[in-house]
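User: Hi! I'm working on a homework problem where we have to compare a predicted structure to a textbook description. Could you give me the structure for the chain below?
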Amino acid sequence: MVITILAEPRSGSTNFTNWFYFNKNFTVFFNPDIKPEHRNEDTIKWYKGGISPKDYAYKTPHLLIKEDFYHYKDFSEFIEISDKVICLYREDEPTQIESWVNAKKTNNWSNPWRYSNNEFKLDELEVSFFKELKKSFRERYLNDSTYFKISYEELYYRNGFQKIVDYLELDCVKNENFPLGQKYRINTDDIRTLI
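Assistant: Happy to help. Predicted structure tokens:
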């Protein structure tokens, strides 16, 4: 089976995909179409260098492709080869945008980061770009009944992984050991110190 996760950035997609990465029944590619100059040495191995998705090779029973959605990209080849498509989005837009702005500013996409209301400033161009991204994702995929959709909030806080299990209908996918790791954002305003 070929599965594509098409996700808004900052929607928990890397953690979600990692669950499959550690399952021996899956070969997993993280954003295989992102060119090498936008990768680091740990992630270059997933770049497929102009190979059509229909020609991706894998030796496991299943292939999972995770793609971050950007409104200027065409995902039709990924969708065409997929038996199942999962669209992952986030309901809490303000927090998602804060995460996006922080990741862009610090180039920290996958490690914990500290957030404080008193110190955090939003870049209006980044906010505008991200709002357009979310609008385009909604229009192209979330409003289309063809695709299976799940939100970050449902997946991580409302036991939505069981919906994934039910949708995929694979014996090797069970509602166990999810999620991996922890949230990236640490709210420093919530941390109290004793004096």
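For your comparison, note the following. Strands lie at 2-7, 26-30, 62-68, 84-89, 113-115, 148-151, 185-187. Residues 155 and 161 are 6 Å apart (CA to CA). Good luck with the assignment!
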